[in-house]
Structure formats: C-alpha cells, structure tokens
Amino acid sequence: MNDVLTTLLDLVQSVDPVLRTVLAGIAMVLETSVLLGLIVPGDTVAIVSATAVGSPFEFGALVVALVLGALVGESVGFALGRFFGPRIRASALGRRLGEANWVRAENYLARRGGIAVFVSRFLPVLHSLIPLTVGTSPMRYRTFLTWTAPACLLWALAYVSVGAAAAGGYRELADRLHQAGYVFVGIIVAFVLLVVVVKKVLHRREERHMTRPDGDAGDGTS
C-alpha cells in the first residue's frame, strides 16, 4: 500500500507547483461552467491537487486558484443563463438533465434567493444548474457573487485542508509505519462519508423549498 501511494503522491508532486495550481483553477472553471460540473469532478481535482501542497504559500495559492476558477465558471454559467438560458434548457443536454431538475432549481431560487445560491454549492446537480438559473432570474450579478463567493471559499478550504493534511500525515508516518497508507485512505474515506452525510442533510432540509414557488423571491434577489 505504502509503495503504491507514495508513487502516486510523488507523481502529483512532480508537476511544477505553478502549473499544478493553474491546472486546478482551469479544472474548476470547467467544473462550475454550465452543466460541465456533472462531468468534471471538481471535488477530486481539489483533493488530488492538495496532496502536493508543500508550504503555506502553496496552500493559499491553491485555495485562491480553486475559488477564482469556481467564480469564473459560475460567472460563465450566469452569463449563458442571461443570454441563452431557454435555448440551453431546450437543448439535447438540457433535456437529458431532466425538466424536473430545472423546475426544482427555479423553485428553489424563487423561494430561497441568495441562500439557494450559497447552499447549492454543496448540493449535487443544483450546483451546476443554479448559476445558469440565476442568469434567467431578476437577481443581479453582484448579488449572485455576494452569495456564491463565500460558499466557494468554504468549499475550497475544506477540500484543500483535508487533502493536504492527509498527504502530510502520510509522509510523516510512511517511514515508521508500514500501514501508513491505510491512515491516508481512512482520512479521505471519512471525509467523503462526512461530505455525503452533510449533502443529504442539506438536501432533506432544503427539499421542501424545491417543490413549488410560493411567490416569495427569497433573500437577496435584487
């Protein structure tokens, strides 16, 4: 286990830190752009990139790259929604996603406003649909950024912290503990399970707001 894991971590770390950070940011642009978040695994990109963090500067740079990449991608989604929302929704890809998900996103935004923008960052499917849906709504771009920026920052800090801590802990134990690889895997698995639980709790809590609009635009829609 240790030999395989060390090889994989060294492979990631062998990439130039600047290039690695830039690629992570670009991956986030793709992950948060319209519907591409359903294909490009942003969570995986963040954790894998974080395993190569070797200093506080690299940690901060990666967080900044992930946040900026997410904001750029979500801004693209917002702009596409503003100008091409109905066309994208009627496209083959939009239809494949399912009309029910589009309706849920619209209802959620109509009822929760800015809160929906913040929470959707942590919900599957909706985190890709909400930026585009906001673009078709009366919500201003500045308001959209006000709600999505802190969500992106919280998300990036969580994933980079766990990835860096798991890899750092493994490297310290690898020479002394034959089963150190299992410690690394255990930390990642525990975090993934925690993420799954949090997403389920958030979804159950917010699901009632996705069923139908109540005529209230919610918080922060203007």
Would you write up a description of this structure?
By secondary structure, this protein is mainly alpha-helical. The chain has one domain (2-210). Helices cover 76% and strands 0% of the residues. It has ten helices and no strands. It has helices spanning 2-13, 17-32, 42-50, 56-90, 92-97, 99-112, 114-120, 126-135, 141-173, 180-206. α2 packs antiparallel against α3. The longest helix has 35 residues, at 56-90.
Précis, in short:
With 222 residues, the chain is an all-alpha fold.
- Count of helical stretches: 10
- Cα gyration radius (Å): 19 Å
Question: What is the helix/strand order?
Answer: HHHHHHHHHH
How is the main sheet built?
Answer: none
- Look at the structure and give the mean pLDDT: 87
Could you list the spans in which at least 5 consecutive residues all have pLDDT below 50?
A: none
Number of DSSP strands? 0
